[in-house]
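re: ur question from the group chat, yeah i did fold both. here u go
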Amino acid sequence: MKEDKKKLLAKIAYMYYEQELTQAQIAKELAIYRTTVSRMLSQAKKQGIVEIKINYFDASLFELEEKFKQTFGLTAVELIPTENDANEEAKEEQLAEAASAWIRRQLTDEMVIGLSWGASVGRAINKIDAKQLSNVSVVPVVGGPSHINSRYHVNTLVYELARKLNGTSLFVNATVIQETKELAEGIFHSKYFHDLKEYWKRLDFVIVGIGGPLSYHKSQWRDLLSAADYEELKLREAVGDCCCRFYDAYGKRLNGALNQRTIGLTLEELANVPQSVGIARGISKARSIAPLLEKGYLKTLITDQETAQEILRVHQRK
């Protein structure tokens, strides 16, 4: 390239990036077309005359997000960088901060929003800043926990999010696991449950947590399972749960007696929601998260870097 051309490219770049003139102003001053200015700015970057450095962002994290999105066909992925010296509590707080900010940006007027529950979802909901929206409804998509394990009761989360969005809320008055199939069917077909089922048909956005393997001890509801339930899940090689529905390593829903006693959205219904968002992290949960992504039950995942890398390893081993 001739020196005079390089000089012109450098001058245009200086005027645009340093003097902060618009492309139209540069075109007028140099007596050239605005489209020529745009083309020459692109050329200046290609020739190395302009080098753009983006601070406060790890390019490798962006690349991982894109790879993750393409691998699982997701609508969106939000990854949090993993800090090696951070403890588990700090990692959970970082996840909640990122999840709350991402979710808040997506919420708009007229939405019907569904909530599951658990520690990750609860932390995120608690951190969401208020946003004045119109005609928003927030509803539970699962029954509640037992009375001894109700820190993140779904009704509490539903009320809290609706309050922050200036919306209305609907509550569920049943535990997620019933003693018998007949009791569950009676609740599901009752008059009081009818309104909730109608909202489930109109869901626009659902936020869910993801339960880890059976050995995972942080679950807020598994005290409702009987010894026979655990034995059945072990025999059928359950790897996790979402909306309190268990599945195996290939994402196959386990349609046993436990599933028939469960009050909640099915995985197939979850997959049909326009935007289904999972919030979860932890190496031990990677085997539980991967099947949900592979089967298309979730359209968005909010997690951290180390978890995403482990999920990809689990997927590649299959």
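okk and heres the other one u asked abt
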Amino acid sequence: MSRLAKILVVDDEPRMGEFLATILAAEGYQVETTTAPQTALNKIKEQSYDVVITDLMMPQISGMDILDEVKKEDSATQVIMITGYSTVENAILAMKKGAFDYLPKPFKIEEIKVVVEKALAQRTLLWEKRSLEQELVKIKPAGGQLVGDSAAMQEVHRLIAKVAKVDSTVLIRGESGTGKELVAKAIHAASPRGKKPLISINCAAIPENLLESELFGHARGAFSGAVTAKKGLFEEADGSTIFLDEIGDISLALQAKLLRVLQEQEFLRIGETKPRRVDVRVISATNRNLEEAMARGEFRPDLYYRLNIITINLPPLRERVEDIPQLAQLFLRNFCIKFGKKIQDISQEALAILLNYEWPGNVRELENVLERAVILCEGQKIEATDLPAELQTFKKCASPAAKLPFKEAVAAFQKELIMSALEESSWVQAKAAELLGLKRTTLNEMLKRFNICQKNE
């Protein structure tokens, strides 16, 4: 906090105000004083102060009233209460209301200096946190942390924009950790149903004997322990969207009941005979191969075709390597805010390791790695040593383009990997794509971007 920090002193005893003004002005602060609490309230509404020092016991308007008004106008402003009538009860109440400290009179000069210094440090931390949160809002897109400019993710965003406008069922497919629920949230948020909350359930996380009750509800006395009637999630989602994650894990019996909801928009609570109608959009997701499950008789073809009207395939992170820097920066900022850290960037060596790793756990694994790195990091940058040991084993493959700016270094590293794969595969693009763990279409897009022609002609 700058020494030009602004401080307001409120005390109905003129000598106390003058005393504090003299001490704090000598420390380089801008100090205003007033003996009138109402004037103080007017000042607080008109301008911002870093610290307000107020007496507790004043006629008509108390220090508690001043504290309430300060926190109402700007919660980051720190309030120091002073009083000659100190009680434990008043101190506790002041701290509960948000006071930074509570000093009984008389206090020592050094004591007030130290408390003000600490209050200003707290003010600085709160402002920095607020600034980071505002910056995060700017970079965080609608629908959560579904970020990425790769060709594969551009296609995902294009499909989300299209399917959000209609009520058709959507099946989201992809490996665990790719962000299937984020896609569902983005579709719902952009849809006409977006004003109501999205109802989500992980079908694999609930035992089969309880899942039906969770989805469709039950009547009182329907089974042992059903002492009251219960709404199911389909009723909760009436007029909204329900997201059924891990849809491939539900039993055949429950698949038949789910099919009825999709076909007829009606269902039965357990223990009831009268159907209930709902208006619900269904979005489902799975990491299983449903075609193979159908061949084994584990998934109903009629339900599959009902769910699979529109399919969105989420690529694994290894197939969209170019999105890793953007995701890593997003997670870095997120966790800096969460843990109150001031880490500025990711080192070139650490970034090269992130780019070279295969990410079997996909975006979720990357998020976990960045959370760990932020916790362990003691400097201004995430270093290779802040990453887990299994990632550090890839350091030997790091790009030599270490002195380039961030974006150029990422591009140079990607181009180097592509050139290496092309050479190893004798410039057969299908083989190179397989070596890189990329789709052929993704590799083609990257070849165009880096202006790589056949054998660099």
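fwiw on the second one: The first strand starts at residue 6 and ends at 10. The chain has 19 helices and 16 strands. idk if thats what u expected
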